[in-house]
Write a structure and sequence with these properties.
The complex is a heterodimer of chains A (433) and B (246). With 433 residues, chain A is α+β, with helices and mostly antiparallel strands. Helices cover 25% and strands 25% of the residues of chain A. Chain A has a domain of 221 residues: Alpha-Beta Plaits, CATH 3.30.70. The longest helix of chain A is centred in the last third of the chain and has 17 residues. The relative contact order of chain A is 0.16. The radius of gyration of chain B is 18 Å and the shape is globular. The N and C termini of chain B lie far apart (47 Å). Classes of the chains: A alpha+beta (433), B alpha/beta (246).
């Protein structure tokens, strides 16, 4: 699996100058480098402007699989896409998947990614049994067990704690390649009460997620809940992407009105299937956008960012609608946003993003100065209730805000490999203003 | 389950690794040959996890004629073989370093030809089944270019050798497929960061190789558009061609 760009992050929008090194089994001599997998972080987390990127995506061998306990050991450049395709025919699936399967195991660990089963399963890091870490100050690779102090920094450590060479991951048994899905409409009254009730009632479902129309005053949305089930053999591997976005979308297509139209159409399309139970291939359930190549081009040359925040459970009912109303009133265009309620499973990583509470992720095309100010105010609203903004999707939060969201950041700084840095880390750790 | 043996010579190359994965997923038994023991062990592990029923590894110097002859004679009888290694010669160094030029020609042409010959003879010993050998040559062998004359010449030799071997072995039930890939995005070409539409992934090239073996094709360009590009390049008059910076 190759990344779509060696220089740009997934959200594009800016370019950086890098020298490139490809990971091998040899010692690493680069100074000021950043390990990088498939480059699916949206902003400067996977960028090291003026420095070196150490690409790991070709170190992707599966090394052993214990099919009694379901523990897979692989090189950290292996993609979740590849693992899922190799293991599904044997009845195993990944314990946690984000919205794209085109991420490496190393990237999933470094960002401690979450998915639609967070309420019951927690983050990816909870399923990492051990990992092999190379650090330039060790000049060697060492095996870290889940109770090692360094391990707690590696999980969610943004790639700064060293080069993750290998990892052992607990997979889960599944009955087959299908997902039994139910689709339910919610909202319309301007609150998320309806959503929260639906989410609470859906706790027994393994996977839950909502799509919410943040441009609609009523905050209408569509709730999807799913669980694994069997399916025909042709679902064992994904259909190869038939669609490609061939070029950058023009600017006029990306305004608030297109977003409104898109959201209405999306809502209407789903209202036809409401309360219906259906069985679909798991690829389609977990990774709907992976079936379109280069979908990031749909946001135009100037790129986009994603704004994902989480607020604690006690504050969610009040704060989420308030932040969404603020962004709507500030005319921040956003296509359908995702809403998800996290569970309270603790992550082994002390820098992990998820917390018990409700998270919302919004796509924002090419944020201008006005959008940025609106987002800065949203940051403050999140910080006031002790929430957080997700670094993996960020390209803009201020150092002050980052340090409020992650007051433990200095512990990560202390564990950082002295030769590793990223544009993101330099941005958010500069002296807070 | 298919326990007929597939041999891959140069198993650590990116295209070979991609082909090995696809064969492993199809539950084929594999014999993998390469120089680097540690890398080969990882590739073998990967094939096992991906469902290859048996994986044998053989470590040695792929350019050593004695090793080639001995390995081809003693290995499990192959029904399919892929000769998949090469070295992208540095033309500037070859200009002045004769020993380097000789070693590069030996790697890219002589040793690959020896493997193809030895594998063909071994397959022919079982006249009931025979076999198929795919040899990775290159579009670079279609015409000598100034920018990679050493590599191109070796691959031209290899293409001609395969063509002749295919004719020699036709009556003995051994088929030879000549593979001519264009630019492939691999560690061998990792120093080139800006890659355009002409670049193919190792996975796509590997899928093309397996398809060509299954269909017993003679000569395949991968991706197929290279046949047209090379047709044009072959027909540029030498008087003009020698001045082009290709």
């Amino acid at each position: 699996m190759n990344p779509q760009s060696l220089d740009q992050p997934w959200g594009r929008g800016f370019s950086a100058k890098h020298s490139h090194v490809f990971a091998s089994h040899q010692a690493i001599s680069a100074k000021n480098f950043l390990p990088r997998g498939l480059g699916r972080s949206y902003g400067d987390l996977c960028v090291n402007d003026g420095g070196t990127l150490l690409h790991t995506f070709r170190r992707d061998r599966l090394l052993s699989f214990d099919d009694v306990h379901g523990v897979l050991t692989c090189e950290a450049g292996a993609s979740l896409a590849d693992i899922a395709e190799a293991m599904l025919p044997r009845g195993w699936f990944l314990p946690v998947v984000p919205g794209t399967r085109y991420v490496t195991v190393g990237g999933a660990i470094a960002n401690d990614v979450h998915g639609k089963n967070h309420h019951g399963g927690g983050t990816f890091g909870r399923f990492v049994k051990s990992c092999a870490l190379y650090r330039t100050d060790w000049e060697s690779t060492q095996q870290l067990a889940a109770d090692d102090e360094m391990f707690h920094g590696v999980i969610g450590g943004l790639g700064l704690t060293g080069v993750i060479r290998e990892a052992s991951v607990q997979l889960k048994r599944v009955p087959g390649p299908g997902i039994e899905q139910e689709t339910i409409l919610f909202g319309g009254d301007g609150s998320i009460d309806n959503y929260l009730a639906l989410d609470e009632a859906s706790k027994p479902w393994e996977y839950t997620v909502g799509w919410i129309d943040t441009l609609d005053r009523g905050l209408r949305g569509v709730f999807f809940r799913g669980r694994h089930c069997d399916g025909p053999d042709e679902w064992l591997s994904p259909r190869s992407a038939k669609l490609t976005v061939p070029f950058d979308a023009p600017r006029w297509l990306l305004g608030r009105w297109s977003a409104k139209t898109f959201n209405s159409l999306y809502y209407r399309a789903n209202s036809l299937r409401t309360a219906r139970r259906e069985t679909i291939p798991l690829w389609q359930y977990f990774f709907p956008l992976d079936s379109v190549n280069h979908w990031n081009r749909a946001y135009g040359k100037r790129g986009f960012i994603q704004y994902q925040f989480v607020v604690p459970a006690a504050a969610a009912r009040e704060t989420v609608p308030r932040i969404l109303a603020h962004l709507r009133e500030a005319n921040v265009a956003s296509y359908l946003a995702v809403i998800k309620t996290f569970g309270d499973m603790p992550s082994p990583g002390f820098m992990s993003f998820p917390m018990a509470g409700t998270t919302v992720a919004l796509d924002i095309p090419a944020p201008d100065a006005h959008d940025r100010r609106a987002l800065d105010r949203a940051d403050a609203m999140v910080a006031d209730v002790s929430g957080r903004v997700y670094p993996a999707k960020d390209a803009r939060m201020s150092a002050t805000m980052y340090q409020r969201f992650f007051p433990q950041w200095q512990e990560l700084e202390a564990m950082r490999d002295p030769a590793i840095s990223s544009s993101f880390w330099r941005r958010v750790t500069q002296t807070a203003d | 389950m298919n326990d007929t043996n597939i041999v891959v010579v140069g198993a650590t190359s990116a295209v070979a690794q991609a082909a090995i994965r696809q064969w492993a997923q199809r539950k084929q038994a594999l014999t993998l040959i390469a120089r680097s023991a540690s890398e080969l062990e990882r590739i073998a592990s990967d094939a096992r996890v991906r469902s290859a029923p048996s994986v044998v590894t053989i470590i040695g110097d792929l350019t050593d004629a004695t090793f080639i002859a001995e390995t081809a004679r003693t290995m499990n009888l192959p029904r399919t073989a892929l000769v998949a290694y090469g070295s992208l010669s540095d033309s500037a160094r070859a200009d002045t370093d004769a020993a380097y030029l000789a070693a590069e020609l030996n790697t890219n042409f002589v040793s690959a030809a020896l493997w193809a010959q030895a594998l063909a003879e071994r397959m022919a010993t079982d006249s009931a089944t025979g076999g198929t050998i795919a040899v990775i040559s290159s579009v670079a062998g279609d015409r000598g270019r100034g920018s990679n004359h050493a590599y191109g010449a070796a691959k031209a030799g290899l293409t001609a050798f395969c063509s002749g071997l295919r004719a020699r072995m036709a009556a003995r039930r051994v088929h030879v497929v000549t593979i001519k890939p264009g630019f492939i995005d691999t560690p061998m070409t990792a120093h080139i960061v800006k890659k355009g539409a002409l670049w193919a992934t190792p996975e796509a090239v590997a899928a093309g190789i397996i398809h060509a073996i299954d269909k017993k094709r003679d000569v395949v360009y991968l991706p197929g558009f290279w046949r047209l590009i090379m047709l044009i390049i072959k027909h540029i008059p030498e008087r003009i061609f020698k001045r082009l910076k290709l």
